[in-house]
Specification:
About 5% of the residues lie in helices and about 40% in strands. By secondary structure, it is mainly beta. The strands form two sheets. It has a six-stranded antiparallel β-sheet, with no helix packed on it. A three-stranded antiparallel β-sheet has the order 5-6-7, with no helix packed on it. β2 (about 45-50) and β3 form a beta hairpin. The longest helix is centred in the first third of the chain and has 5 residues, at about 5. The radius of gyration is 20 Å and the shape is globular. The relative contact order is 0.20.
Length: about 150
């Protein structure tokens, strides 16, 4: 410890065992649903602290998006869930990432469910939330999907 740190008792060294949260995130967690309520390939829209949030199950992995399209405010999570269409040139196209793209119901803007980023312009995005699956107690038959705000 340096001499300056010894003179200032309020200076703390970071605890390397403590997990670091992304900037702007908090420790608030909210129960969104039971795992069984959102089977693979489906979604559930929930209300958390006045925010409408879509929770998606993509092949067993859960993701959550703010239910607002940044373009004109449509309920994004009520849009069609689809695949990304990719092409190497005229007449060639294929579908990739089936079930990972949500299309805004108003103007068809497409967003990556995992990141919240618009497909054609990654700078345009809707808020994506951290999601965990947690068990509470030893007698719980079903895990809970938790949204972290």
């Amino acid at each position: 410890m340096s001499a300056a740190e010894r003179q200032r008792p309020d200076v703390r060294q970071p605890d390397s065992a403590e997990p670091r949260r992304p900037a702007g995130s908090s420790d608030k967690r909210f129960r969104a649903a039971r795992v069984s309520e959102i089977p693979p390939g489906s979604r559930k829209i929930v209300e958390v602290e006045g925010r409408s949030i879509g929770v998606y199950n993509i092949r067993g992995a859960f993701h959550a998006l703010r239910n607002v399209c940044p373009h004109q405010g449509a309920e994004l999570c009520k849009g069609l869930v689809t695949a990304a269409v990719v092409s190497s040139g005229p007449g060639d196209f294929r579908f990739e990432r089936e079930g990972e793209i949500v299309r805004c119901p108003w103007h068809q803007w497409e967003f990556d469910i995992k990141t919240g980023c618009m497909i054609v312009d990654g700078k345009m995005r809707t808020k994506a939330y951290e999601v965990t699956v947690e068990k509470f107690g030893v007698s719980v038959d079903d895990d809970y999907v938790m949204i972290h705000l």
